[in-house]
Amino acid sequence: MVEIPGTGLPIIGHQLAWLAAEGVTDVVVSCGHLADVLQEWLARTPLPLRVTTVVEEEPLGRGGGLKYAARHLPCTDRPWYATNGDVWTRFPLREMAAFHEERGATATLALARPRIPWGVVETNEFGQVLDFIEAPPSPYPVNAGVYVFAPEFAALLPDVGDHERTTFPHLARERRLAGFPLPQGAYWRAIDTAKDLTEAARELAAQNAL
C-alpha cells in the first residue's frame, strides 16, 4: 500500500478515518486488481469502523462495481455514501446528506473547484494584459468523487459499465441528480500521481501547522 508521505497511512486509511469521524459505522470496499494487498492491510490495521471487502471476479466497470458493492450494504433501505478510492478530502458529510434530502434527489455528487495547475493571464477587451494569476480555482466545478445515494439508486446502476455515462445523465435529464458545492475552505485533492502524494503531504503539513 502506497502511503501519503509523513502520515503512515495510505489514502484509504485517511478516508476511513474521515468517514468514521462523520458518523459512518460500516463501509463496503470494492476491490479488483491487487485485492489481496488491500485486504491484508485492512486485516492488520486497527480500523475505526466495520469494513467489508468485495472482490470483482471480472472487471465490472465503475457502475457495475458500485452496484456489486451496494448489494453488500448492511442497510439497503437507507441512503448511503460512496467515494472514489483516489480522493482525499475533508468536509461535513452530514451537510451533504441534508442537502440531498432537502432536494429529494436520487443521487447527489459533491462538487469541487480544484486549482488550475498553471498560471493564467487576465486581459481586457482590447487584449491588453492586466494581471498574472498563479494557479487560480477552476471556474467550473468538477465531480469531487463523493456521493450520497437514495436507496433506489442501486437498481438504476448498470450491471457492467460506467454509471457516469448511463445512470447519471438519465437522472440529470429527469432533474433527480443534485450537486453539492464543497464548503468554502474544504480540503479536496485527487491522488493520481506520485507528485500528488507529495503535494498532499505538504498541504497536510501546512494545515497542521496552522
User: Could you say which overall geometry the principal axes of the C-alpha atoms support?
Assistant: globular
Query: Strand sequence of the main sheet, in spatial order?
Result: 3-8-5-9
* Secondary structure tally: strands: 10
By secondary-structure content and strand pairing, the structural class works out as: alpha/beta
- Which CATH class is shown? Alpha Beta
CATH topology-level name: Spore Coat Polysaccharide Biosynthesis Protein SpsA, Chain A
Low-pLDDT sequence parts: none
Mean pLDDT: 91
Cα end-to-end separation: 29 Å
CATH superfamily: Spore Coat Polysaccharide Biosynthesis Protein SpsA, Chain A
Q: Please bin the fraction of helical residues.
A: 25-40%
Beta-strand fraction estimate: 15-25%
Order of H and E elements: HEHEHEEHEEEEHEEH
Oligomer: single chain
Q: What gyration radius follows from the Cα positions, in whole Å?
A: 19 Å
Biggest sheet features = 4 strands, mixed
Number of structural domains: 1
Q: Could you please describe the fold and organization of this structure?
A:
It comes from Streptomyces lavendulae subsp. lavendulae. GO terms for molecular function: glucose-1-phosphate cytidylyltransferase activity. Keywords: Nucleotidyltransferase, Transferase. Residues 8-205 form the Nucleotidyl transferase domain. This is Glucose-1-phosphate cytidylyltransferase. The chain has 210 residues and is an alpha/beta fold. The protein has a single domain (11-209), classed as Spore Coat Polysaccharide Biosynthesis Protein SpsA, Chain A (Alpha-Beta Complex), CATH 3.90.550. Helix content is 30%, strand content 25%. It has six helices and ten strands; from the N terminus they run αβαβαββαββββαββα. The chain has helices at 11-21, 35-44, 61-70, 93-102, 167-173, 194-209; strands spanning 26-31, 50-55, 80-83, 87-90, 107-112, 120-123, 129-133, 142-149, 177-181, 187-190. It has a four-stranded mixed sheet. Strand 6 and strand 7 (129-133) form a beta hairpin. The longest helix is centred in the C-terminal third of the chain and has 16 residues, at 194-209. It is globular and about 60 Å long. The model has no long low-confidence stretch (mean pLDDT 91).
